[in-house]
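Duplicate of earlier report; Small ribosomal subunit biogenesis GTPase RsgA input re-posted below.
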Amino acid sequence: MNKLMQYGWNMYWENKWNKEERSQHKPGRIIADHGQKYRIFTEEGEVWGEMSGKMQHTLQSKGIYPAVGDWVQLHMLEGEGRAIIHSIIDRKTSISRQKAGVKSAQEQLIAANVDVLFLVTSLNDDYNPRRMERYLIMAWNSGVNPVILLSKADLCDDAEMKAAEMELIAPGVPVHVVSALENMGKDAVTGYLKEGVTVALTGSSGCGKSTIVNWLAESIEQKTQGIREEDSRGRHTTTHRELFLLPQGGLMVDTPGMRELQLYDDDGGGWEQVFADIETIGERCRFTDCEHENEAGCAVLAAVLDGELDEKRLQNYRKTQRELQFQIKKEARTQRKVNRKDHSAKEPVRRKSAFWNSRISEE
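Output:
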């Protein structure tokens, strides 16, 4: 298992591994997702893998598929450099969002078994604290430790001021100002890249994620593209998710840039963590069920008037709250449809008995 330890295998996964399957299957970690096929690292090196027919049938109804970072049970096809995936070992963490362009509640898994999530935003015209609040909700709900990276510091004259602004909206979350071009902040970032630790990067298109991967890997692991100067927006550079082993010993997952981040759920209480300051102020409201809209004695509205609270932050508080409430309702509707479909499939076909048929013919 020495080679697998480089890719994060440890006693936690050893205890999770199904001992009864050891004689038939071997563990591996998905390092790249190419749709129906996956690149997987095993004790024997890299192999191509695909799901067994049974696994595809089982997971299709649940809408859950293997993701980059997953540990899986494999049946190795000797001499072919291929393997069949039979199951996913229970995930430790999972980073997900609501799948874009889908009306029903549908989770899109970004990466699995991540320890640290770098939330990247560039210090150009695309800099947006409100967007970062959404990324923080996703991070806390995923069970990972978020770290904010303010990239392209060479393009900004007030980087430290913006870092202070980020620290205000994310108390306790590390914030680092970095520039790959000027080699700024590298020591702080590499401190997270310990052997066996999996780090993922996420952020909007063109924020510099692939450049950061190349900078830390000290090689051209990922292709990069420039941004559109007229709006500081980037083009999609990374087209699929991939996990890289870095020279520092850590592992890094690069993900395609997001045009928008639709929140999937709030099982981890991420929304309350991100807006803990508003929740604390809200404890001073006259009414315990105050919604901070136009109620008399609302301490939150008073805090906005006094300059204690940014009005835009309050607006995002309301917006993300409504979005998550809507998402919960949508997920419940989707689940009811699935339950009805399962019930219909299990409903026995009712046939008239031979006795009843004979009575009908006699009549």
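Confidence is low (pLDDT under 50) at residues 223-238, 349-363.

Merging into the original ticket.
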